Amino acid sequence: MTHEEFKKQFLPLQQQLYRDAYRMLCDSFEAEDALQNLYLKLWEQKESLDTLANPLSYCRTLLRNICIDRWRAIRAKGSDPLTDIEQIQLPSPPGIEAKETKEFIAHFLSSLPQQHRRIMQMTMDGTSIEEIGKITGLTQGNIRVIVSRVRKKFREYYNNI
């Protein structure tokens, strides 16, 4: 595959792939890095890319694996973007000072299973139920149930202070 063929085939996919990476990583810088890694891997494999039946599907699979690796690296460092409460803004619950609100939210989020935290973060970021289903592999019904249960649990947690 020549440089021009590579550009024609893979660069138009950049916007779709960036959105996919952002949905998986919930961080624009991490998504950009993942996309760069994807294009680097694609370029290294340029000789075998001519035989691809569906380049977008192949790119999405590679990107998913890259995002999983980045996710694991982030978690290994001890920084979890799903519990990064700098992005979440809620009014202070009754009985809690404003400076303690972040600790309150972090404590609640840390009590959730990882899958529920991830689904709630994507929901708060405005990701649709269909897109969350594609990312997580869950049905739309399962996702709605999880979101409903977490919201109910948060209301109980919030009101019991």
Low-confidence stretches: 80-86
Total tally of structural domains? 2
Put simply, the count of helices is 8
E-strand count: 0
Strand content range:
under 5%
Give the C-level CATH assignment of the largest domain: Mainly Alpha
How would you sum up the global shape?
elongated
| Ends apart, CA distance between termini | 62 Å
SSE order = HHHHHHHH
Structural notes for this entry:
Helices cover about 70% and strands about 0% of the residues. With about 160 residues, the protein is mainly α. The protein has 2 domains: about 5-75, RNA polymerase sigma factor, region 2, helix turn helix motif (Rna Polymerase Sigma Factor, Chain: A, Orthogonal Bundle); about 80-160, Orthogonal Bundle (Arc Repressor Mutant, subunit A). α6 (about 115-125) crosses α8 (about 140-160). It is elongated, with a radius of gyration of 19 Å. The protein starts with a helix and ends with a helix.
Please specify the SSE layout and strand pairing.
Layout (H helix, E strand, L loop, with lengths): L2 H8 L3 H12 L2 H17 L10 H23 L23 H11 L2 H11 L4 H8 L3 H20 L2
Helix pairs in contact: 2-3, 2-4, 3-4, 6-8
State the main characteristics.
161 residues, mainly alpha, Arc Repressor Mutant, subunit A, 2 domains, 8 helices, 68% helix, 0% strand
